[in-house]
Design goal:
This protein has 417 residues and is mainly α. Helix content is 59%, strand content 2%.
Length: 417
């Protein structure tokens, strides 16, 4: 599992309330890559102590000093810490209250920007990318041509049984290679050759710097068919191991066929060579390995099974709080799923309308679905919160350009932070 997958699983666990699991996954991400801003932000939400929260948020601000979300969260955590460790006084000796200057409240019209009321984006069959209308049976958006079907494994993580199969194939390849090398060295020693390896080029049709009679003895005791048969069996076992590790589609079927074929070969060999106990024992080992492969295959169904899900324009289950809505919206923006970004960012603003960063991200999402009218309204509201913001000025220019070429090609994405 790569870092991005681990990050996404950690976020999903945090959103589902599995704080212990989320802590473990997100901590592994930041340990492997300290520059993961999103991991630090989410980790600050699932650690228990205020000190750990402060460390996470300060690390996030080191990566992005202007991150409004991290700044607000850090101020909140530090204020809680100050209250927790505030000094106590005897009755009558209380410290006089400090002069508190209240922060300005967002304008009333800002607070009511995105009430949770049904609107045009509440249709779940709108395209999650461009918000064009689609039918439930559509597999591709007729407007933007993005696929509307997600194909996912039933088991994202490799199961214990899959690892057992991988280990079995690796062990088998190692044993085959070791037996071949030991036998090759042994026959050379028994015939008075200090080392068999100078004769290896002969198996590749290359000349060897050894007497011809010695070369023929080696090739007789260890013929080319046996050499290449051993190499082929080792490579084949490694290929099966890779097939399992990378979970090649229908790989469990191929592994099942391999186990069945080995079982038949082992059974036929034991019957044909019943008069030789060593050979019967060798084929018995083949049958045991085949039986192990078949038994493992019976438990690999979920590792190789996919389920298909139709994309719908809906809020992610389990997402609560403006921070979660904003992070989900930003994640969808990075994936180009602007429709899903819009509905999550609108919820973030409905819960916390005073965050200019939320409005800026929504403006970008609106522009990328070519809803310039809504982008203009969101831009006006953002400007009321931060009248002198350079980012807002940049977006105003970009919106003007897009309005001037309305009806042209698909616009480019813009950073949300």
């Amino acid at each position: 599992m790569n870092l991005q997958e681990k990050l996404e699983q950690g976020i999903a666990a945090a959103e589902a309330g599995r704080k212990k699991e989320a802590r473990k996954l997100l901590a592994e991400v930041v340990q492997a890559d300290e520059n993961r801003l999103e991991a630090w932000l989410w980790l600050s939400q699932v650690v228990d102590s205020l000190e750990d929260k402060i460390v996470c948020l300060e690390n996030a601000l080191t990566l992005d000093p202007h991150n409004q979300l991290a700044q607000d969260q850090l101020s909140l955590v530090k204020s809680r810490q100050e209250k927790l460790f505030a000094p106590t006084y005897a009755p009558g000796d209380e410290e006089p209250p400090p002069q508190v200057v209240p922060l300005p409240e967002p304008p009333l019209e800002i607070k009511a920007v995105y009430p949770h009321q049904p609107d045009e984006f509440d249709n779940p069959w709108l395209c999650s990318y461009c918000t064009a209308p689609t039918r439930p049976q559509d597999k591709v958006c007729p407007a933007c041509r993005h696929a509307l079907i997600i194909r996912q494994r039933m088991k994202e993580e490799r199961t214990v049984w899959l690892w057992r199969g991988i280990f079995l194939q690796f062990t088998l390849a190692f044993i085959l290679l070791a037996l071949g090398l030991v036998y090759f060295a042994l026959i050379a020693r028994l015939n008075g050759f200090p080392s068999p390896f100078p004769f290896l080029p002969a198996y590749f049709g290359r000349p060897v710097d050894q007497p011809e009679e010695l070369k023929q003895i080696i090739l007789t005791l260890f013929p080319p068919w046996a050499f290449w048969g051993g190499v082929g069996a080792t490579v084949y076992s490694l290929l099966l191991m890779l097939l399992l590790y990378f979970r090649v589609p229908n790989g469990h079927i191929l592994y099942l066929i391999n186990g069945g074929a080995m079982l038949i070969v082992g059974l036929l060999g034991a019957i044909l060579f019943y008069y030789s106990l060593p050979i019967v024992m060798a084929f018995g080992v083949v049958m045991l390995i085949a039986a192990a492969q078949l038994f493992i295959t019976m438990n690999l169904w979920y590792d190789f099974t996919f389920v298909e899900t139709r994309l719908r324009l809906v809020i992610d289950p389990g997402v609560k709080g403006h921070t979660s809505f904003f992070i989900s919206g930003r994640n969808y923006s990075e994936k180009g799923m602007w429709g899903r970004a819009v509905i999550h960012l609108r919820r973030a603003i409905a819960a916390e309308p005073g965050h200019p960063l939320y409005h800026l991200a929504l403006i970008v999402a609106y522009m990328n679905i070519k809803r310039y009218d809504l982008a203009q309204k969101a831009l006006t509201r953002a400007e009321e919160l931060e009248p002198h913001s350079e980012k807002i000025a940049q977006l105003k220019k970009e919106l003007a350009i897009r309005l001037g070429r309305a009806g042209g090609g698909q616009p480019n994405a813009f950073p949300t932070r």
